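Lay summary. Proteins are chains of building blocks that fold into shapes, and those shapes determine what they do. In this project we predict the shape from the chain. Here is one chain we studied, written as its sequence of building blocks.
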Amino acid sequence: MAALFLKRLTLQTLKKTAGNCTRRCFGTYILPLTIPARLPLVAPVPRLSSLMHARASGTVADTQDSGKKKTKNDPAFSNIGRKIHERVIHVLDEAGNDLGSMHRAEVIRLMAERDLRLVKRDSGSEPPRYQLLSGLQIHEERLRLREMEKAHPKPGPVLTKELTLSSNIGQHDLDTKSKQIQQWIEKKYKVQITIKKGKNVEEPEHKMEDICNKILRTMPGIATFLSRPQPVRGGKAVTCVLRHLSKKEENAYRETQETQKRDSLDKENRDNRESDVHQ
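And here is the predicted shape, written in a compact code that computers can read:
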């Protein structure tokens, strides 16, 4: 019995000693292994609100871009051939008669049967309005539109001409410059005139302003002041701007001239009658 107890005690002592030795020898070198987190095999699904926002933004931008391209490349009056984008369109025939709404396949069949072209008339209507025309009709319509553009050109920006004169300019040179200014005014230019004070010349202060008024008086019924004479450069010069009269101003000037003529004629007639009575 004592021998069995001693054997167990010896085994327990050996186990503890072996465990302590193992920890002393390998404890500083054994590190705890950390298991890395598993990466998801499936990509995260974006939120529905984000997808809707991205799709809406892309749709608006694409629509705007396509609209710009369509507007830029869409001529004012031309044969569109068989490229009818709409499924149903409103059609007029070559005589201007209303054929009503038609499927594009039916329109293409009419074009082939009558040897006609298709021209867009009103893309803003619903359905869009088109007209069947012959090649000769399209040519004549283009010529008519060109003539209208020539008769009513689009107004462009008004250009300004500049001219600098000396206050001691001679009458002959002033007349020449006034004619040049009138030619610019008749071409609807604005003319900026600067009158510089002559060197070593004693002259009244209002002489430079008087030259501006004298130039304007050479163009009655044609020009007026856009900017009246005013001193610049510390009083060493005077500048003004002339422009062409508007249609309303031209009509008012003519009416004034006609009124003055009538008044002068009436006065002459009265004077003649009075002289006849005295005789």
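What the prediction tells us: The CA atoms of residues 163 and 193 lie 5 Å apart.
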